[in-house]
Amino acid sequence: MKLMRYLPLMGLMFLTACAGEAQEEKAMDGTAQNVLESVYADVSVEQFKELMASMPEAQLLDVRTPGECAEGMIAGAQAMDIQGPDFSKSLELLNKELPVLVYCKSGGRSGRAMDMMEDMGFTKVFNLNGGITAWREAGESVSTTD
Questions:
Q1: Residue 97 and residue 104: Cα distance in Å, rounded?
Q2: Which residues, 6 or more positions from 81, have their beta carbon under 8 angstroms from its beta carbon?
């Protein structure tokens, strides 16, 4: 008899768990369309490339140090050192209404930059998961400033 009292609660828990799994599957779907529905997202190298191709108006931002950027950047990227004293002021110069594609060496600093941009009211920011390290490991090219 006690079991009967808990059946509605157990049913609710089951439905909630199933709904959570469905949302997780949708979030893990790697299509560019699902990524574009997000406002702030970590994306794979393939998704980053798709976003670059499908959003020519996007602002491409490298938040590594000048020394790291000298080793090579994704073509068309703007260098803006997140560790620099004027990083927040530099972000203010970007267009908050245009998408931002941001990366660093491994994704940590660019993740912090994405959080900052969210707080500042940027509309869409996509962080390259794994950073330029993942980009290079995927065989993608970088440009150097010689």
A1: 22
A2: 63, 64, 65, 66, 87
pTM score, whole prediction: 0.74
Question: 79, exposed or middle or buried, with CB in 10 Å at 0-12, 13-18, 19+?
Answer: middle
Residue among 60, 65, 53 at smallest CA distance from 126: 60
Please, are residues 129 and 136 in contact by the beta-carbon 8 Å criterion? no
| DSSP-based helix, strand, coil % in the chain, nearest 5 | 50, 15, 35
The residue written with tokens 């976003």 in the block is 51
Helix (H) or strand (E) segment spanning residue 71: none
8 CB-side CA count, 13 A: 1
Query: In 3-state terms, what secondary structure has residue 102?
Result: strand
Query: pLDDT tens, 68-84?
Result: 999 999 999 999 999 99
Tell the CATH topology of 31-137: Oxidized Rhodanese; domain 1 (3.40.250)
